[in-house]
Write a structure and sequence with these properties.
By secondary structure, the chain is an alpha+beta fold. The chain has one domain. Helices cover about 25% and strands about 20% of the residues. The chain has 2 helices and 2 strands. The chain has a two-stranded parallel sheet. Strand 1, helix 1 and strand 2 form a beta-alpha-beta unit. The protein is globular. The structure holds iron/sulfur cluster (SF4).
């Protein structure tokens, strides 16, 4: 039986959001902690060694306002 294949990995850098949509369901939006580098390294390890993912893989940053983490944060996440 063929393994299921996925091409999308959804990540949350943290809950922080500087917007306040009335319909928002996300708690802790004032919390500005961001994902630790070690956590992302574990994610990369699992993703790139998974038999369930195939090229191309899309990493989608979601929840909170991802861009509020700032340019420097995302530069540190590049492999
Ligand atoms: S997390 Fe999304 S839905 Fe919630 S306040 Fe921010 S932008 Fe709006």
């Amino acid at each position: 039986m063929a393994l299921p294949r996925r091409q999308l990995v959804i990540l949350q850098q943290g809950p922080f959001c500087n917007i306040d949509c009335k319909y928002c369901y996300l708690p802790n939006r004032a919390n500005n902690k961001t994902m630790a580098q070690e956590t992302l390294e574990k994610v990369y390890h699992e993703v790139f060694n998974s038999n369930y993912l195939r090229d191309p893989i899309t990493f989608l940053w979601h929840a909170g306002e991802p861009l509020a983490a700032g340019h420097a944060f995302f530069r540190t996440l590049l492999p």
